[in-house]
Specification:
With 419 residues, the chain is mainly α. The chain is built from 15 helices and no strands.
Amino acid sequence: MPNDQNTPASADQAEAVPERSAENAPAEPPSPSADALRHPTGPATDVGARNAFAAKPGEEVHAHTGMFPTQSTHGGGGHHRDQNPTGKRLAILTLTALGVVYGDIGTSPLYALKECFSPHYGLAATRENVFGVLSLIVWALTLVVTVKYVTFVLRADNRGEGGTFALLALIFPKRSPDAPAARGRWLVALALFGTALLYGDGIITPAMSVLGALEGIEIATPSLSEYIVPLAVIILAVLFAVQRFGTDRVGKAFGPIMLTWFVCIAVLGVNSVRQDLSILSAVNPWYAIQFAQMHGGLAFLVLGSVVLVVTGGEALYADMGHFGRKPISTAWLWLVFPSLLLNYFGQGALLLRHPEAAENPFFLLAPKPLLIPLLAIATMAAIVASQALISGAFSITREGDQLGYIPRLENKHTSVPDE
């Protein structure tokens, strides 16, 4: 597949750019690239410095790394084709986003509620506790993902790009030229700290998700338990190897898997909820407040497990440059969010009927004849989960490279439709 090249500057020229003096600079600035991270106002300019602080308010920060073409081949911001896709194009991008963006947060039902009632908390699966924990889960998903990310954060794109570095480039022009430089350094430090957290998550998530998936094989066939680690190594090696085909092909392969997964968990949830419709009242936040009042410090510790339901939510913003805001928000609002809620409500209804099911409420939702097929689908979905952070790590790396906070790297774009 063709790789993007920056035609105006070679690698040698890139090294020389920071040392150019003002008198030797070309009279005409380069044409602004639709793909570059830009400050929101003012004309574009070729900023020689490798640090975003060198950019005046309103200037565009251009990469000197050969990452992007000077002239964009498509008319939108970011590196996806359409800013406002419709019809078939929107359906394709939405399906692709399912496989790339929502793998991590989409597999949280496998373990989130189970961890909330883990024996080391000593929290019994009583009616009050089930309603309280479920209310915390519902409102964590609603406030953190739907309200914060989908409603607000996804609007803060920088020419279609998302992530902490893209957000940082938007913040700088809002700083007064007379403001203390220390304030800017704190903003950079916070952005780098947030990026480091995402990198750390990206390092451990592939290994944890794949191993967690293969542990499901141990339940079905204990004789294969000794092969779990070798199989995990093979799967991870293959997963990283296929990244060179780009997010378009990877997403198209993983998208149908995640579509099947979300439909399955929704059906399981509905089947359980219809047996005890009272569980739907857990949407009332008063149950969460009562739970906190009743358990005090223990409620705070349990909240650490409740946070598991939103892990991977940062991928919505980090991967926005791959697909755009509309496909990501469409997938969340119309499929992912309803499916997750239905499954969590279903697990809660199961605990009301059988409190002993707290040991593994997700798999106990399924009828025994469907347990092995569910294990197979869950294994595939858990493998896909690592894709979200792989793509997110790539996005923030290319943005950090543009702004000068990461050493120059060669980025090869191999997904023609969406890169």
